[in-house]
Write a structure and sequence with these properties.
Blueprint (H helix, E strand, L loop, with lengths): L3 E11 L2 E9 L3 E2 L10 E7 L10 E8 L4 E5 L4 E3 L7 E9 L4 E5 L3 E3 L4 E10 L4 E10 L12 E8 L3 E8 L3 H5 L9 E9 L5 H16 L7 E7 L2 E8 L2 H20 L12
Parallel strand pairs: 1-5, 4-6, 5-8, 6-9, 7-10, 8-11, 9-12, 10-12, 11-13
Antiparallel strand pairs: 1-2, 3-4, 12-15, 13-14, 15-17, 16-17
């Protein structure tokens, strides 16, 4: 039997301040709320004390952001799916963002170790007037330590209902996917960043956000392995491939900072936990 952990986070606006109420079951917690930039922006760090996810573990996170609230959610380190003896390990996020609310979903990378059998599912529902910026970075194996992801399976799903659905499975034995020029081209890190709204971005604003991302990409070493597009008038998506986590995270952080300023007129406020 694995761990079964559940965490509910409910953010609400109290005057000029965003506050969070949490309920947890099992080893999934949220640390103290921080306000490094303004009372209306609540920063939280999610922690999973066991330190990794193994076969049979089930982690569930439910986030509800009520009208006018603004939450920044991150993690203190990588999420690790370890080798499985045969059981599936799963992590699920379901988030609801109400009118005029904002969410920044900024976890550090997910590492899928050799032999893992893992699923990672994310669903974000945005009401009219809601907006979010989110990212996801997954790394296969530990290339720097000589551990390749040569067997195992990782399934990921990112969904904005009726707007954008991305679902795929990486099998460690699928050399065509992992190594061909039409697949991951030998890269072992895939990064996705998106900005989304509950109603359509108007054309000038959408163009401004895409241009801001492309300017950052043009000056980045990963420029030949990344791009940005708008698959729907309510979402803009950046994708990148990289040999290591660090250059991918650096690119996403730069574009996130630009989008935050362009969309919300807020300067980047990098979570302190990333520097510890």
């Amino acid at each position: 039997m694995g761990w079964h952990a559940h965490l509910d986070l409910r953010y609400r606006r109290d005057g000029e301040r965003t506050i969070v109420h949490d309920r947890h079951r099992g080893p999934l917690r949220v640390l103290q709320s921080l306000y490094p930039e303004a009372p209306v922006v609540c920063h939280n760090v999610l922690v999973h004390p066991p330190g990794g996810i193994v076969g049979g573990d089930v982690l569930e996170l439910a986030v509800d952001i009520t009208a006018g609230a603004h939450a920044v959610i991150t993690t203190p380190g990588a999420t690790r799916f370890y080798r499985s003896a045969g059981d599936l390990a799963s992590q699920t996020l379901s988030a609801h963002i109400a009118e005029d609310a904002r969410l920044e979903w900024l976890p550090l990378e997910t590492i899928c170790h050799r032999g893992a059998l893992a699923e990672n599912r994310m669903r974000f529902t945005l009401e009219a007037g809601a907006e979010m910026i989110g990212w996801d970075v997954f790394a296969l194996g530990l290339p720097a330590s000589g551990e390749d992801f040569d067997f195992g399976r990782y399934t990921q799903q990112i969904e904005l209902p009726r707007v954008w659905l991305e679902r795929g499975t990486v099998d460690g034995t699928d050399a065509r996917l992992l190594d061909s020029a039409l697949g991951m081209a030998g890269q072992r890190v895939m990064a996705t960043l998106w900005i989304a709204a509950g109603a359509a971005f108007n054309t000038p604003r959408r163009a401004q956000l895409i241009d801001a991302a492309r300017e950052t990409i043009a000056a980045n070493a990963l420029q030949r392995r990344c791009g940005v597009t708008a698959p729907n008038d309510r979402v803009i998506v950046l994708r990148a491939l990289a040999p290591r986590v660090e250059p991918a995270m650096a690119l996403l952080t730069q574009v996130w900072a630009g989008w935050r300023q362009t969309a919300w007129q807020l300067p980047a406020c990098v979570p302190r936990v990333w520097r510890t």
